[in-house]
Structures are given as structure tokens and as C-alpha cells.
Amino acid sequence: MATRTETREEFEARLLRQSDEADAGAYDHIFARGRDYLISQLPDGYVFDDDTGHIVRTDPNLPNHFCVAARVDGVPTGRMAKLTAL
User: How would you classify residue 78: left for phi > 0, otherwise alpha for psi between -120 and 50, otherwise beta?
Assistant: First the structure.
């Protein structure tokens, strides 16, 4: 059984709809899991600012980046992700 390919217009409409849903909080439970994991991996001297969604250095002598173990859908990938802090 063949499946129909989504047209460009349908794709763009779906993205706009999902963006509106995300703005309305429909995916907050998914975002929260990723945020909570990230916060649990922050080294000393870095904090997560919930108001802006940024990682902030509390000590200006620390580097502006660090690495955490990457995950996809909660599953470790075996790779490291480099994150930049303000």
C-alpha cells in the first residue's frame, strides 16, 4: 500500500499548526523532560534561567561552553553535545 506524500503547502500548514500548539503549551511535557535532563547535567558554576531558557555562567572565569551526554527521546546516543553559556 503506497502512502501519499505531503505537499509543500500541507507541510508548511502542519508546521504552523504545530508551532501554534507549542505556543499554547501542548508540548510542554516533552520540553520539560529535556529541560530537566539538561539541568541535571549542568556542571558547577552554570545555571539554567527558566525565564529566558538560557544557560548562564555564575562565574565569569569559567569557559563559555561545556559538554553533556547527548540523548534522543531520552536514550543516550554515545555522543557528547557542546553547549554554550552566556
Answer: left
- What pLDDT shows up at residue 1? 59
Give per-residue pLDDT as tens, 7-60.
999 999 999 999 999 999 998 888 888 889 889 889 999 999 988 889 999 999
SS3 72: strand
Residue indicated by cell numbers 500500500: 1
- Picking from 27, 16, 19, the residue whose alpha carbon sits closest to that of residue 8 is 16
Task: Quote the pLDDT of residue 37.
Answer: 86
Contacting residues for 70 by C-beta, under 8 A, at least 6 apart: 76, 77, 79, 80, 81
DSSP string spanning 10-24?
HHHHHHHHHHHHHHT
